[in-house]
């Protein structure tokens, strides 16, 4: 195993053990939601995206570094579609606050306003037979959504938050995939927090590309080991 991969796993394991929570995005607000896939344009080559459907999802809105609420932090939006690949075959999408341009969609962007811009996968995804980036663009219905945990909780409590799920190929504009709508928040003890992992929970034709994949995969595995997160069913 390369040295960098070992170091990433060891660092994530140590941070997660100290926090008793994921190494990154340690604390968040969870809720259920609905993802409606609404295909538009040419097919992608991934049945889950090419067929219209309504899916029940589990979401977690979080602060990436766990900084105090008065400081801007990159924000995470994690989405689990329980049976995207069939019974007991979930899909996890992990999105981070970012820009929307061809370059800035790949860079995390700290925010004080949780709905001030999109959340993207940052790194490229294999989508069918193409490469692209996935993102959730919020439909803003309030002037300001505080990004501290209490503010995220209040925003979910105030009513549904809607995001447009989109994808973009390199150098191209965003293309709509569907609509994600949140439900009210529910409070969970730390041991019941869902362990999201886009490398374990993926579809054959929808998954992160190999770019930096070994490094990120090792970090996710180290974080799970550090907090003794159970591996999801295959």
TrEMBL record:
Q: Which domain of life is it from?
A: Bacteria
Which GO molecular function terms does the record list?
A: heme binding
Q: What is this protein called?
A: Phosphodiesterase
**Annotated source species:** Streptomyces pristinaespiralis (strain ATCC 25486 / DSM 40338 / CBS 914.69 / JCM 4507 / KCC S-0507 / NBRC 13074 / NRRL 2958 / 5647)
